[in-house]
Amino acid sequence: MENSALEKYCRENGAFAAKVIPVKEIEFDSSFRKYCEENLCGQYGKNYACPPYAGTPEELKERAENFRQAVVFQTVTPLKGGMTQENFQAAKRQNNRVGDAVREKLAREKIKILHARAGQCDYCEECGMVTGSPCTYPPKGQISLSAFCIDVAVLAETCGMKFQNGENTLTYFGVIFF
Question: InterPro entries, per this entry (predicted)?
Answer without folding.
Answer: DUF2284_metal-binding (IPR019271)
